[in-house]
Write a structure and sequence with these properties.
Helix content is about 60%, strand content about 0%. By secondary structure, the protein is mainly α. The protein has a two-stranded antiparallel ribbon. About 35% of the residues are buried. It comes from Streptococcus agalactiae serotype V (strain ATCC BAA-611 / 2603 V/R).
Length: about 170
């Protein structure tokens, strides 16, 4: 198993900080929590396709950001869900990373991952049902739609950015 270098830890800290800032600061915080959410920071999930260090960075960013919503339950549910589903998504869809859809607009792996990860919002919906008494299916639908929208935008942006920045290092 490879260990992380000092540079890796610095990259992880930067991505974690960016995730937190894009989630908890105004105006992003107004749309980052609850049944109707669009987390701009979720776009960073695609970095895990380039290097595993980013899996830990986005998970930690999610956990710290979730301290500002429902507290520790959200830290563990949201953080655990992020860790599990980003990890699984990269394993399932990395094989498609060189392929593109819609005349090269969107990376095929990122496209599939977006729908997979949006479906994983069932974990958030269950949490919101338990903690806030929200209806399960409607909450799953609304969180999944917001997540999907954020990820599809992020899929295009991160892929375009990766052509100029080497995220594999």
């Amino acid at each position: 198993m490879n260990t992380f270098t000092t540079r890796d830890y610095a990259h992880m800290a930067i991505v974690t900080a960016i995730y937190i800032v894009l989630t908890i600061t105004p105006p992003f915080n107004a749309i980052a929590y609850g049944a109707y959410q669009f987390r701009v920071s979720e776009m960073l999930n695609f970095l895990a396709f380039y290097h595993r260090k980013y899996l830990f960075a986005v998970t930690l960013g999610c956990m710290i950001s979730n301290l500002y919503s429902f507290g520790m339950i959200d830290v563990f549910v949201g953080g655990g869900s992020t860790l599990l589903f980003v990890y699984l998504g990269t394993i399932l869809f990395k094989q498609y990373q060189k392929d593109y859809l819609f005349n090269g607009l969107i990376n095929k792996a990122f496209f599939f991952f977006s729908f997979f990860f949006a479906a994983s919002m069932i974990t958030v919906a269950v949490e919101l049902k338990i903690v806030a008494g929200l209806p399960l299916l409607l909450t799953w639908l609304t969180t999944a739609v917001g997540e999907l929208a954020s990820l599809l935008v992020g899929a295009v942006l991160v892929d375009k950015l990766s052509r100029h920045v080497d995220f594999t290092k």
